[in-house]
Amino acid sequence: MVLKEATILVIDDDVDVLTALRLLFKPLVKEVIIEKNPSNIGAQIDKKNFDIIILDMNFNGLVNTGNEGIFWLNEIKKIKPKTDVVLITAYADIDLAIRALKEGASDFLVKPWKNEKITNTISSLLKARKSNASDKKSSQLGTSAIIGESEAIKDVFLKLKKVAPTDANVLILGENGTGKDLIAKALHDNSNRKDKPFVKVDVGALTSSLFESELFGYKKGAFTDAKEDRVGRFEAANGGTLFLDEIGNITLGQQVRLLTVLQNRLVTPLGSNEAISIDIRLICATNIEPKVLADEQKFRKDLIYRINTVDIVMPPLRDRGTDITLLAKHFISVYADKYNKSQFLLDSGFISKLKKHDFPGNVRELQYVLERAVIMADSTSLKPEDLVFSSIERQTSKASTTTMNLDSLEKNAILTVLEKNKGNVSKSAKELGITRAALYRRLDKYEL
Ligand SMILES: Nc1ncnc2c1ncn2[C@@H]1O[C@H](COP(=O)(O)OP(=O)(O)OP(=O)(O)O)[C@@H](O)[C@H]1O
């Protein structure tokens, strides 16, 4: 961000300082607001998003310890943790400066200031904000936006790294909400086609007539509603990647149409006589289990072979051990930022409750549950009661406990006992009737 796009708030009880800074910044920035009374800070920052806040450290002129400044700095950080705060004081007190920086101030200036020094400080902070924002964007590209460190997700990353640069067709399998969309995009972003289009079509949601017109396109007049030519998704993805989601839900007739295009690498728009040759990399995804896909009454074997040069199976969240905590921390931080809340501390009971849940809706369910928890939380720490699992998901969760295997039962028993004993391994081992070493082995096994 450049200086002239910035909105700045100056808070000082000295009217001369306020006037001087307003005169200095008015011609340089988009907007400068001055405030004499620090008690109005909350109201000011609720009203507007400031890029920089310049805050005096000594408000009543009697106590020159800078404590008032640090107090107000903390108040600002509670409401808008991302705002850059520059503190000013009349006393060149290095200890105070360091304390202010530790408490989250972005910089520190000593009165009387040189105008050039203060504008340079503000300009560099604005530049740093810009580069942080663009770093964030680029990290969304590779696999860095896909969070996970469990053995199960590491296998996925390995496969992704190997397969992405090839032109192989990939079938991504996995329950709803496991991250199939993210993997499809990562395959494209890490391929030689990354600068070409990535086109996604939810084929499971298309009626028969829409399936044809969406995928193959049409010429004006091909049917009653065809008022002008329309490019189909195959053609739109030319040179790039076509991602067909919910592939397991298409009819046998649609499967034949798809197979023909994939075999000949040609599409003919409805109402046209001319076939267009297409060069696409195909990625498909489905939440249907492989054994159902293997049922020839529902799915053509020749199509399965064609779309499934390589398959990537997304593990359900309940099998991803420590990823639950890792993802939880990520989502909590994202939502704390989004809803302008300070970062939360996580109560140990909160983490145990998360780990015990079965997550039938996988990462998507975790994401929604945490967004709700962040919105509803009354304090700065998240507690078990802040976690409310949706009754719909709970129903599914109950159903799935009937098919629970011994491992899940053992894992849940360990978690319950650990929670009861506040994480004390010796007490928990005793209660479970096993040795400490045996408990540690199991903690390792279940990545707890
Ligand atoms: N490993 C991960 N790291 C960060 N976010 C994730 C991860 N996995 C999934 N998500 C998030 O969870 C949500 C669901 O993921 P996604 O849509 O990719 O799942 P899906 O398997 O394609 O679901 P569906 O089968 O319902 O289409 C998205 O918001 C996605 O960003």
From TrEMBL:
Residues 7-126 form the Response regulatory domain. This is DNA-binding transcriptional response regulator, NtrC family, contains REC, AAA-type ATPase, and a Fis-type DNA-binding domains. SUPFAM superfamilies: CheY-like (SSF52172), Homeodomain-like (SSF46689), P-loop containing nucleoside triphosphate hydrolases (SSF52540). The lineage of its organism: Bacteria, Pseudomonadati, Bacteroidota, Flavobacteriia, Flavobacteriales. The modification 4-aspartylphosphate is found at D56. GO terms for molecular function: ATP binding; sequence-specific DNA binding. Residues 146-375 form the Sigma-54 factor interaction domain. One of its GO terms (biological process) is phosphorelay signal transduction system.
